[in-house]
Design goal:
Chain lengths: 705, 323
């Protein structure tokens, strides 16, 4: 009863989604967006006409003006600095625009150009000081804040009356201040245009990447040849220009220069920036985050003003939000990977009946023996991690190595070893096609093709993205083993879509159906996912009928058969289940049966743990990784089975000295060649009663004429 | 490096002397007893604040919220006495508020790891907003009868020396003792010099950082009491002024590097004298408030640039996000 409940709960409750969602980059933008929706909803409930078009247009104008400054601040924060002088630059450029227009009577285009230039110059002062003289951004812009503000105060003492006296009535100027296109205010239009450009600039263009790189690590950026000082200086110039754009619209809208223009603006914009999720200290941020932050802050301050809150409360609210947002951001950035790694592992319920006996004296097909005790060893100490071994029709032996090479041992004595091809990822399963091309599954890379002359080509490294998966499962993370059908379809297994090559044992701890079988068509080059939801699919072998494949599910401890053609097309049947170990590669035997490697044997403790997902989750959260309960992969065996699912024979190395760990085996001219992913050797075992002429290549593709 | 810093002190002191002499000779009304008294009284509050800032800056931080600590808790004392509470109870409340404020600052910086400039900028706004919204009825909190006798903290003389100067002197001695004669002071220097090394050697960095901000806030509150006593009121809008830049100016000009671990009380005294003389001279010259700010800003900028050359940031220990 309890087991049933547990199994239902873990079958239908998507535990694994939390970790996958948290590890997405967009969650960092999603949080402020949700906050924005909450604030907007709360205010629309408590304030009348909050969502009326007039009110929205007014908000959009303010949001546009502050939004420009927000963009500038975002840029400066992403590059690893801060700009507190924006409020004073805003005031000065506002004054500049109105002075030129009202007092000197310049035409509007000239006013716009001069104001932008003024903003650029004011920003350039910050830029030179911080970028080239490498002063601290905070203290420097704090000082320029006072200097600019004092200059502004001095200027308006002299000119405020002149400006207040003038009432320019210029259509283009009025359009800047209050015009709209189809109801969208002019400022919002310009903001949208600049925001789209800013997004493309930051995410698609080289200078944008340089900015993010400098913010992420200034020293590394310098070492990789990015012009750090110039880029930083230009960011401050850009901040000045963007602030002056905001000031232009503000000047055109209100047309006055009060003494308190832009006072405290830096706190508002900074709050918006941090609240939007742009990390203080640099390296992370986006245009969207800046916009969302500005909107939230604007809604809150406007809402408080409408609700007649005292000035002090407004101030407290801003400061409080600023602090909380900064704190959350800093803690999250610091602990992100730790939190994700804690919640990412999501074990599920996986019950297996007691395994068949393997002990000596208990009988049965798995009864242990010592047949592999004296296997011949090839390449002892010279090869590392030959997960799969394969022989071509000229009797040469190929094996993958941990160093990212395919090694070739030359017939007849297999003493000479050479690098056949360098790939760069860890080669796992291998198969020859009819044209002597060697197809290899490479962990972390995908399916690759090696021509007889040793050139490496990518066959496929992606498949169709499934609709309901949070993790991007279009890329291949752990292609494992493959076989090729007569029609040139390559079926290969991808063991897990949730873990990388180096973390594959954790998938065993999870015991969730994270794996899939993918089909690559050599004729069209198309790739599609054939089967999904498999528990670590591993070995694959085309069955005798040519219409189905046999595949092993390592942590499902079973062998299944999948029809890709014929009457039973699309169906899956269990061939064997409840194996005493974890099945790995499957290959043809000379007598029409199949070889199967058991990479490790089951243990009662893990079997029990598989029935207790809560226990495994607590373990993953509280115990360091190297003390977790993992599947045993130290000792295994080779068995031979037939299509009816009957085990015919088994081969063991009881002493565990010569060849206890087996992930793959190939029969060739009366010998069985053994590979193991943790081994530094390849085994060669003389089979009794085997066809001494059997060559897998010939059997599959016909004898060389 | 040591020789260079000694030079900076000498230079600042020489600039002070030249400035003082020049003002004495060319400015009418500078070298009068009344003006000297005003100068010293202004300087006293600035100097006490400079001591608070020095403690934090030596520990590689900065405290922008000092003016809030100067304005709000003393303002609270005046307000509470005005509302009929006894003076000791009001003082106790103010001190508790100050300690709580210092703890919040310290916790944010030491435990939540918010950059100190940023954290104190926000907490300062928070405290000032609190005062504005909840504590004070008017922007200027007036002296009331219940405060009788307390004005002696800022007015009058002790042994012929103006009391506020005596208060500054007492604060200097206490801070000098703390920094130079206690283990706690040595820890501050160690943390300021290299926070990671300090932590690795087993210094309880985080509690010490919290302590720095608590002490700084308490000194700020003390400065506020002295100020309130000397002018018989608490103008809480002082938070909006540029006083904090004067304080930073005192510290940086005095030769306490912003990168931490350097300097002491002597630097604060020298810096205070220079700034005090400069401000006083500009006031006598009738330079407008904005003009004074402009001059101060430019001088501060020059000081920071000089500081960055004399005490370059250690790129190895400068934190990511140390803006």
């Amino acid at each position: 009863m309890r087991d049933t409940l547990t199994s239902l709960r873990y079958r239908y409750w998507p535990d694994h989604l939390l970790g996958e969602i948290l590890s997405k980059r967009w969650t960092e933008t999603a949080v402020p967006v949700i906050l924005l929706l909450i604030v907007g909803f709360a205010l629309s409930q408590s304030i009348d006409h909050f969502l009326s078009p007039a009110s929205l247009a007014d908000t959009a104008r303010q949001a546009g003006e502050i939004g420009f400054i927000g963009l500038g601040m975002a840029l400066v924060v992403i590059v690893g600095g801060i700009d507190l002088s924006v409020g004073s630059i805003f005031a000065l450029t506002d004054f500049c625009a109105l002075y030129l227009l009202d007092v000197l009577g310049w035409p509007v285009p000239a006013v716009v150009a001069a104001t932008l230039l003024c903003g650029a110059l004011l920003g350039a002062v910050n830029g030179v000081l911080i970028g080239y003289l490498r002063l601290r951004a905070f203290i420097t812009t704090l000082i320029t804040l006072i200097i600019y503000r004092s200059a502004f105060d001095l200027l308006i003492q002299r000119y405020s009356n002149d400006i207040a006296a003038a009432f320019p009535d210029i259509p283009s100027w009025n359009f800047i201040g209050g015009g709209d296109v189809f109801g969208i205010p002019s400022v919002a239009l310009v903001y949208i245009a600049i925001a789209i450009f800013g997004h493309v600039f930051m995410t698609r263009l080289r200078p944008g990447w340089h900015i993010t790189a400098i913010g992420g690590s200034r020293r590394s950026a310098y070492n990789s040849g990015i012009p750090v000082r110039r880029t930083i200086a230009l960011c401050y110039v850009a901040s000045g220009v963007l602030t002056s754009i905001g000031a232009l619209f503000f000047a055109a809208r209100l047309g006055t220069v009060g003494g308190d223009i832009g006072v405290g603006l830096e706190v508002i914009v900074l709050t918006a920036t941090v609240l939007g999720g742009i990390t203080l200290g640099g390296g992370k941020g986006s245009v969207t985050k800046s916009l969302v932050g500005v909107l939230i802050v604007l809604l809150i301050t406007n809402g408080l003003t409408t609700l007649n809150a005292r000035g002090g409360i407004n101030r407290m609210a801003l400061a409080g939000i600023l602090l909380v947002a900064a704190m959350v951001d800093i803690r999250w950035q610091k602990n992100r990977t730790r939190i994700i790694s804690k919640v990412y592992v999501a074990p599920t319920y996986h019950a297996l009946p007691p395994p068949p006996p393997t002990e000596i004296g208990k009988g049965g097909p798995f009864e242990q023996n010592d047949k592999l005790r004296d296997v011949q060893l090839i390449g002892l100490g010279r090869i590392e991690a030959p997960e799969d071994v394969i022989l071509d029709r000229n009797d040469n032996l190929y094996a993958g190595s941990r160093h990212g090479d395919i090694m070739r041992f030359l017939a007849p004595d297999y003493q000479r070893m050479e690098v056949f091809a360098h790939i760069g990822g860890q080669p796992l399963g291998m198969a020859f096609d009819r044209q002597d091309n060697l197809y290899v599954c490479i962990g972390g890379m995908g399916l690759y093709r090696i021509k007889p002359d040793g050139t490496v080509e990518k066959a496929t490294d992606e498949t169709n993205r499934s609709m309901h998966s949070v993790n991007d499962d279009s890329r291949l993370r752990l292609a494992d083993d493959l076989d090729i059908t007569d029609d040139g379809l390559i079926f290969f297994s991808e063991a897990t879509v949730r873990y990388e090559m180096d973390e594959w044992p954790i998938d065993g701890l999870e015991a969730r159906g994270n794996g899939r079988i993918i089909c690559y068509d050599t004729k069209t080059g198309a790739t599609h996912t054939a089967l999904r939801g498999l528990k670590f699919p591993n070995g694959i072998c085309v069955a005798g009928d040519g219409q189905s494949i046999l595949f092993a599910e390592t942590f499902g401890c079973s062998i299944k058969r999948y029809w890709f053609a014929g009457a039973k097309k699309g169906t899956v049947e269990v061939v064997m289940d409840n194996l005493p170990g974890y099945p790995d590669n499957i290959n043809l035997a000379s007598d029409g049966n199949y070889w199967l490697a058991l990479v490790g044997m089951r243990s009662p403790s893990l079997d029990l743990a598989w029935k207790m997902p809560g226990f495994r989750r607590r373990m993953a959260k509280r115990v360091p990784v190297d003390e977790w309960l993992f599947p045993n992969i130290n000792t295994g065996c080779v068995v031979k089975f037939n299509e009816q699912g009957k085990i015919l024979e088994s081969f063991w190395d009881l002493r565990g000295e010569n060849h206890p760990m087996i992930t793959s085996m190939r029969e060739h001219r009366g010998y069985l060649y053994l590979g193991g992913i943790a081994n530094n050797r390849i085994g060669r075992y003389k089979l009794d009663n085997a066809d001494p002429k059997f060559v897998q290549y010939d059997k599959r593709w016909g004898k060389l004429s | 490096m040591k020789r260079l810093r000694f030079n900076q002190q000498e230079i600042v002191f020489a600039v002070f002397a030249v400035l003082f002499l020049a003002f004495s000779v060319f400015l009418r009304g500078f070298l009068t007893p009344e003006n000297m008294l005003t100068l010293l009284q202004n300087v006293a509050v600035l100097g006490i604040l400079g001591l608070a800032m020095a403690i934090v800056v030596i520990g590689r931080g900065i405290d922008i919220s000092l003016i809030a600590a100067l304005a709000v808790p003393p303002g609270l004392v005046l307000q509470m006495v005005q509302d009929g509470h006894s003076l000791p109870a009001s003082l106790l409340t103010a001190v508790l508020l100050t300690i709580a404020f210092g703890l919040v600052n310290g916790w944010l910086i030491a435990y939540a790891e918010v950059p100190s400039l940023f954290a104190t900028l926000a907490t300062g706004l928070l405290l000032a907003g609190l005062g504005q919204a909840a504590l004070f009825q008017l922007d200027v909190v007036q002296w009331s009868d219940g405060m009788k006798g307390f004005e002696r903290l800022g007015q009058g003389t002790i042994l012929g020396i103006p009391t506020s100067i005596v208060m500054f002197a007492i604060a200097c001695i206490v801070v000098a003792f703390l920094l130079r004669r206690t283990r706690w002071g040595a820890y501050i220097y160690a943390i300021g010099d290299n926070p990671y090394a300090a932590r690795v050697t087993g210094i309880p960095s985080r509690p010490i950082i919290v302590l720095q901000y608590v002490v700084a806030a308490l000194i700020g509150c003390f400065a506020g009491l002295v100020m309130a006593a000397s002018v018989n009121s608490m103008p809480t809008r002082i938070f909006n002024s540029t006083l904090i830049y004067d304080v930073i100016l005192v510290v940086v000009l005095g030769g306490i590097g912003l990168s931490g671990g350097r300097g002491g009380v002597l630097n604060v005294i020298i810096g205070t004298l220079l700034i005090g003389t400069m401000l006083n001279g500009m006031t006598i010259m009738d330079i407008s408030y904005a003009g004074q700010n402009l001059v101060k800003g430019v001088v501060l900028l020059l000081a920071v640039i000089t500081d960055s050359f004399l005490n370059p940031r250690n790129e190895e220990t400068a934190q990511q996000g140390d803006i």
